[in-house]
Amino acid sequence: MNNAIEVQKLRKEFKAYSSRSGLTGAFRDLFTRNYQIATAVNDISFTVKKGEMVGYIGENGAGKSTTIKMLTGILTPTSGQISVNGMNPHKEREKFVQTIGVVFGQRSQLWWDIAVQESFRLLKKVYKVSDQQYDDHMNHVIRTLDIEPLLDKPVRKLSLGQRMRCELAAALIHNPPLLFLDEPTIGLDVLVKLKIREFLKEINEKYNTTILLTTHDLTDIEALCERVIMLDEGNVIYDGALKNLKETLGEGKELQFQFLEKVDLAAVKHVTDGMPVKWELDERDLIFTANIEDSDELISRVITAVAAVFKIKDMKINETSTEEIIRNIYEKGAVDVG
């Protein structure tokens, strides 16, 4: 079997209860509750091949975490089929958990008050990993993630970046063929993120580990994943190569301006009236960005118009960022990339 994950018409509904007002309402709520059905995941289908690194992205409430929880067997689907590593996550629980690693950025699998290596030893027993297997694999993991100095410390004494590196190591004690990462770099500084990304690339190359990654940090996705699945309100609105997304929808350019004097956005917009330009202002760094089509003539006209009126301190021309492309997709809805 070539697929690590197969999902067909997967659906998850929740009952959202509402409370009646007043004392009489509260009393009636004791006996009958009003509720509505909320659909978190709406009949989605996709497959992930063994050894693939896939970015699973969407805004808050899009259904990402609910999907991950169904794929890892934490939640039972309302309907649809799931096969992960050739198993049903809910029905073959004990055998199934031996074949996956999970890191939830917001939740810990390490014991708070004991030293990190004691947590590792406990997990080694849980997963029935032999001393030989543990030494062969974990020495490399510990060295690459640079967590040797942390092994004697209790988890509660670790910084967030240190803890996340230890969480990642803990998820890999049994060297699972499939790794689920839910916001693994949330709140981490740039150097720790880079270390984690390099490590994930390495285990993917060394062990052909399949990785499904949800994140709000699109630089994680760009650094690791060739393919993205994009979710919006429980529906898949794009599934395909990140490269195609950028080529098809990233045909624009960003012109970034910083000015020597104080300038307001309305004045800048006024200068390019009648031109197909979308302006944005980063108020913290006072960077004015013009999003335009990739046309040499238009770029030249915008720069000339701006330079004729304002004193420019700095200017850059960038490809449209993945972030901008994805924001445009969410504004427009489903995307068809040929």
UniProtKB/TrEMBL annotation:
Q: Which SMART domains match?
A: AAA
PROSITE patterns in the cross-refs: ABC_TRANSPORTER_2
Instruction: Please list every transmembrane segment annotated in the UniProt record, as residue ranges.
Output: none
Cross-referenced Gene3D superfamilies: P-loop containing nucleotide triphosphate hydrolases
Q: Where is the ABC transporter domain?
A: 25-258
Q: Which UniProt keywords apply?
A: ATP-binding, Nucleotide-binding, Transport
The record ties this protein, via InterPro entries, to: AAA+_ATPase, ABC_transporter-like_ATP-bd, ABC_transporter_ATP-binding, P-loop_NTPase
- What's an example of a GO molecular-function annotation for this chain? ATP binding
Q: What SUPFAM superfamilies does its record include?
A: P-loop containing nucleoside triphosphate hydrolases
Task: State the PANTHER family in the record.
Answer: ABC TRANSPORTER ATP-BINDING PROTEIN (PTHR42711), ABC-TRANSPORT PROTEIN, ATP-BINDING COMPONENT (PTHR42711:SF1)
Stated name of the protein: ABC transporter
The organism of origin for this protein: Neobacillus vireti LMG 21834
